UniProtKB/TrEMBL annotation:
Keywords: Aminotransferase, DNA-binding, Pyridoxal phosphate, Transcription, Transcription regulation, Transferase. In the C-terminal section; belongs to the class-I pyridoxal-phosphate-dependent aminotransferase family. Gene3D superfamilies: Type I PLP-dependent aspartate aminotransferase-like (Major domain), Winged helix-like DNA-binding domain superfamily/Winged helix DNA-binding domain. It comes from Deinococcus oregonensis. This is PLP-dependent aminotransferase family protein. SUPFAM superfamilies: PLP-dependent transferases, Winged helix' DNA-binding domain. The keyword Transcription regulation applies. The keyword Transport does not apply. InterPro entries: Aminotransferase_I/II_large (IPR004839), HTH_trans_reg/aminotransferase (IPR051446), PyrdxlP-dep_Trfase (IPR015424), PyrdxlP-dep_Trfase_major (IPR015421), Tscrpt_reg_HTH_GntR (IPR000524), WH-like_DNA-bd_sf (IPR036388), WH_DNA-bd_sf (IPR036390). It comes from the Bacteria.
């Protein structure tokens, strides 16, 4: 009689591995001198006493656990029996092995939470960035782009085109993909009148990222000139890099260049000073370039929203003036797509002198090996399709309407008879500065506005080492015209009420 042939049945994987459901990794080393059941018991014991395996948690059955660990069932049974004898696990009829209540450390007393920080560690203060929009009310938060104006069909098509090709198995060039560099250089020529060799343009993760790379090129402890008031997050990047930041006053013509001290770097926002909104005139731009030559220094020109101008004639970028003087190579030009397009893509660029670009590129390699290639592909499609130019024209019209609405709604404050405030920096960009007439106090006005659901900033946050000017910072890029008019009306009413209260 022939014995029947038996075919082993294949186990059907109808659920995720059991080990994937455990909040700790179990690994057994067959080359270890410790027996496998002792290794398993030690790992489960550590999971319980640390609080990773919570009290009352039921462990997988011994047969299932053995299968997952590819060991005999006896290895698992011995380990579980040892832990049960120690009181770490409880054997519950009809349930299985369960973590004993007294053996598990409460989550609030976990070892990780109780570990002290190293004695040398000093917790840094919170990052100096603007908080998110408050719930409800009208927020005049600066730096918000009108991303709702994006052509959704063109935007989706750009990302679909980028997704058609399989992603590369390499990081790609740290300076950015060549087609995007060419497209951004051409966009700069059209929008800013700046002729740029794409080989000198490097794609970055935004202006702060680019500034961090540049800060790393300076000898530690270098003196850096910085606008006061100025962009506080950028200032903190320089301080965190170990440099000495020297505040330089700003007036209605931008950075005051008459008595600049020696330094290795100056960081400026000449097209639309942040936060005052003023523009640096050509004489001061030339004076700043002369200062850089005399002191063997570099200049960072942060042109964060230079595409938006409302009737004001464009001024030549510092970079263009520098090269017009015979290619001095003193200026690093920072641009970003956060304001002109959307901060969601986290993309900007730096145009550096040819001699400096290899050092900036090296810093990028060591920082993160370069920019997201899929995002670069999508942006290349979007720009080369003409969609960025069309978006800029549409956004410029939109922001122009916002700017006009803000200026008109605040005009009662500038009446010749008894002016209460002066609106500055309104000719360009996405924010303006409302300078208050004494004895009005900006902080008190901002507090009174918040009570009525209108949220504004003041210059106090942007000013260091001296008394801040009494002014409100009004970002309007993320508001509708109706919101601007409503919010501005409240600003007028609060300022008029404050003035009446302070007037004898």
């Amino acid at each position: 009689m022939v014995a029947p042939t038996t075919v082993p049945r294949l186990a059907k994987k109808t659920s995720p591995p059991l080990l994937a459901n455990l909040p700790l990794a179990l690994t057994l080393d067959r080359n270890s001198p410790d027996a496998l059941h002792l290794q398993l018991a030690a790992q489960l014991r550590a999971g319980v006493t640390s609080g990773t395996l919570a009290a009352g948690m039921v462990l997988p059955g011994s047969r299932a656990l053995a299968g997952e660990l590819v060991v005999t069932r006896g290895v698992v049974t011995l380990a579980l029996a040892e832990l049960a004898a120690e009181g770490v696990l409880d054997a519950v009829a009809g349930v299985g092995m369960r973590v004993a209540t007294g053996a598990a450390r409460p989550a609030s007393q976990s070892t990780a939470a109780a570990l002290p920080l190293p004695a040398w560690f000093v917790s840094p203060p919170p990052a100096p960035v603007d908080a998110g929009k408050p719930q409800g009310g009208i927020s005049f938060k600066p730096g918000v782009a009108a991303s709702h104006l994006l052509d959704g069909r063109a935007w989706r098509a750009a990302w679909q085109a980028a997704a058609r090709a399989a992603p590369s198995g390499d990081y790609g060039p740290a300076a950015g993909q060549w087609p995007l560099r060419v497209a951004l250089a051409a966009f700069l020529a059209r929008s800013r009148g700046l002729s740029v060799d794409p080989a000198r343009l490097m794609v970055t993760a935004g202006s702060l990222s680019a500034l961090g790379l540049i800060a790393g090129l300076l000898p530690r402890g270098s003196r850096v000139l910085f606008e006061n008031p100025g962009y506080r997050a950028a200032r903190q990047v320089l301080l965190d890099a170990g440099h000495t930041v020297i505040p330089v006053p700003v007036d209605e013509n931008g950075l005051m260049t008459d008595r600049l001290p020696p330094a290795r770097l100056a960081v400026v926002t000449p097209s639309h000073q942040y936060p005052l909104g003023v523009r640096m005139g050509v004489p001061r731009r030339l004076a700043l370039l002369e200062w850089a030559r005399q002191h063997d220094a570099l200049i960072v020109e942060d042109d964060y929203d230079g595409e938006f101008r409302y009737g004001a004639p464009p001024l030549p970028p510092l970079t263009a003036l520098d090269e017009g003087e015979g290619g001095g190579g003193r200026v690093l030009y920072l641009g970003t797509l956060s304001k002109v397009l959307t901060p969601a893509v986290r993309t900007g660029f730096v145009v550096a002198p040819a001699a400096l670009l290899p050092a900036v590129e090296r810093a990028r390699v060591l920082a993160d090996a370069g920019h997201n290639t899929v995002t670069q592909d999508a942006l290349t499609h979007f720009i080369l399709g003409g969609h960025l130019d069309r978006h800029v024209r549409r956004a410029r019209r939109w922001h122009g309407q916002q700017q006009s609405a803000l200026a008109s709604a605040l005009s009662p404050l500038t009446d010749a008879g008894r002016p209460l405030a002066q609106l500055g920096g309104i000719e360009a960009g996405l924010h303006a500065c409302l300078h208050l007439v004494p004895p009005l106090d900006a902080e008190a006005v901002a507090a009174a506005l918040a009570v009525r659901g209108v949220f504004v900033g003041t210059l106090q946050l942007f000013t260091v080492a001296e008394l801040a000017q009494q002014a409100l910072v009004l970002g309007y890029g993320g508001l509708t015209v109706a919101q601007i008019e409503t919010g501005a009306k409240v600003i007028v009413e609060v300022l008029q009420a404050e003035s009446a209260r302070l007037t004898p």
